[in-house]
Design goal:
Largest sheet: 2 strands, antiparallel
CATH superfamily of the largest domain: GntR ligand-binding domain-like
Low-confidence stretches: none
CATH class of the largest domain: Mainly Alpha
Number of domains: 2
Mean pLDDT: 87
Radius of gyration: 22 Å
Structural class: mainly alpha
Strand order of the largest sheet: 1-2
Oligomer: single chain
CATH architecture of the largest domain: Up-down Bundle
Number of strands: 2
CATH topology of the largest domain: Four Helix Bundle (Hemerythrin (Met), subunit A)
Strand content: under 5%
Length: 243
């Protein structure tokens, strides 16, 4: 079962590579839920690393909810849906490299629809003047970008949403949004190839910024919901064309 682990690790950050390898093995199902891992000594021998590297890696995996560590028993693979933390969400998205399974995609879209309107409502209440200036700076840079500067437009789009999360005053909201930045930018970059979509998104951004600037939380929520539905519609159409 563990033959694939025997290749020595060669890197400056052995613990990180250890964690990444076991994340992939667990998330891919190659190591099953409930399976007991070899002892720290056995893993260290197989991977040609020190036991402290293995121990630190297992502790990190445990902090992400992927394994449970018990004295004299060792490490056992968890059902990450029950035990996983927010750090595991980022790992799960990174593992799938932006091409999400349908259930995970639907879950993320649903989470955005619940959370981002709340970000906008709170931003209308709590934003600073500096944050308003930053929102308009982002919008200006978006509208000034060339239609072929897809990556720039994509990054600015994410920064717009992140700044609203920051303006909410809730310190956790930006962390949640950042946790799925890779998949967010991967997917949005694809429909920004359509200039009509890009122009519509920028109009939504300007209207959202105006609502937040005026302190109109109700209007900010309504526009954010329209923006998210617009993006979801084009995302689903894009996925349908590819299948």
């Amino acid at each position: 079962m563990f033959e694939q682990l025997t290749e020595p690790l060669r890197t400056d950050s052995l613990k990180d590579v250890f964690v990444l390898r076991f994340e992939e093995l667990i998330l891919s199902g190659k190591i099953k839920i409930g399976q007991k891992l070899p002892s720290e000594r056995e893993l260290a021998l197989q991977l040609c690393v020190s036991r402290p590297v293995v121990h630190e890696g297992l502790v990190e995996l445990a902090s992400r909810g992927l394994v449970s560590l018990k004295p004299r028993i060792g490490a056992t693979v968890n059902d990450y849906r029950k035990e996983g933390s927010i750090s595991l969400l980022a790992s799960l998205i990174q593992y799938q490299k932006g091409k999400l399974e349908p259930d995970l995609l639907e879950s993320l879209l649903e989470m955005r629809m619940h959370l981002e309107p709340a970000f906008a409502r709170l931003a209308a209440q709590n934003r600073t003047e500096e944050q308003i200036r930053e929102l308009y700076d982002i919008i200006h840079n978006e509208e000034s970008a060339g239609s072929r500067e897809i990556q720039k437009i994509t990054n600015l789009d994410f920064e717009f949403h992140l700044l609203i999360a920051m303006a909410s005053g809730n310190v956790v909201y930006p962390l949640l949004l950042n946790s799925f930045r890779p998949v967010y930018t991967n997917l949005s970059s694809q429909f920004f190839h359509d200039p009509r979509v890009t122009a519509a998104v920028h109009k939504y951004h300007r209207n959202t910024a105006r609502a937040i600037e005026s302190g109109d939380g109700k209007k900010a929520v309504a526009i954010m919901k329209e923006l998210l539905r617009h993006g979801e519609t084009h995302l689903r159409a894009m996925i349908d064309r590819e299948t």
